[in-house]
Amino acid sequence: MLPTATKQWTLEGQSGFDSLRFNTSAPIPHLGERDVLVRFHSASLNYRDLVISKGAYPLPTINSIVPVSDGAGTVEAIGPGVRRFKPGDRVVTLFEQGRIAGSPANKTETKSLGGTTDGALRQYGAYDEEGLVTMPETLDFQQASTLPCAAVTAWNALYGLAGNTVKARDTVLTQGTGGVSMFALQFAKAAGARVIATTGSEWKAEVIKRLGADHVINYKAETNWGATAANLSPGGLGVDHVIEVGGPQSMAESLKAIRVNGCISIIGFLGGPPTEQQPTFLECLSHECVVRGVYVGSRMIFEDMNRAIDANAIKPIIDKKVFALEEAKEAYQYMVCQRV
Hints:
Elements (H helix, E strand, L loop, with lengths): L4 E7 L8 E8 L7 E10 L2 H7 L16 E9 L11 E4 L2 E2 L13 E2 L11 E5 L3 E3 L6 H4 L2 H13 L11 E5 L3 H12 L3 E6 L2 H9 L4 E4 L6 H8 L6 E6 L6 H7 E9 L14 H7 L2 E4 L5 H14 L15 H12 L1
Parallel strand pairs: 10-11, 10-13, 11-12, 13-14, 14-15
Antiparallel strand pairs: 1-2, 3-4, 3-8, 4-5, 5-9, 6-7
């Protein structure tokens, strides 16, 4: 017998994780023609989830949403018109529902999980069959639940621009130890590229080295880290790719690091809001580089990435701390503490 109710969290307001409300018996709607009912086994938090809860996310969100974009589970039931999945299949959520390939024509019309469409912080969730992806065969549910946002973004940054994809012997510069940067490190090394990573922590530097980074720069000790990264590249010509997650606060250094015709993928704003000293478009011209905004990616990119994960036995780097569904507030608080 199919479940008729689900435990779930919703965001009611914008006062941080205190806005989270737990419902022990939310109704599960009747499945439509192409709907797939997923029983979630794991969900994963991203920095985006913290920002949304505080009302600081720059893209559209709605109130009373089920938060969190990233989840993995099994197919519990399917609508009569579903062809892509069957009960028992292991699946992962697609961050932007309906984005099968390419980029959306209008960013304001996208249906992003945990923002404008109910996400994965619940026991059961129903999604259109086009909004789910088959899990990599070599990952468990906890590992797979980390893929929809950070991993797809990192893969898109390295492989999403035709003619400027990462190749063996390229040099990739990553920033920090967040999800996107860690996945970018793993994907770049799998491609045979060199990786230069930045961090402000000595113990995190050791972790990054163990994961295969060729060079690690402490940006607190080396404030001119962009030029340092360029000098570490072959011939001192600059790096081929920059995974730019800091935003306005780190863009000037990224421009120092990039080579002519290299690609800077702008992904986040972890460094804080814009300042008067941030670079302008003229700096992009003077450095003769490509600067590209990356907002997660399509299902086609997701599926390409999953094949590479299986082929290269890539395992996501996840925290040992795991919370029960009922402990979502504690999970949010834990993530905030890890960022301090």
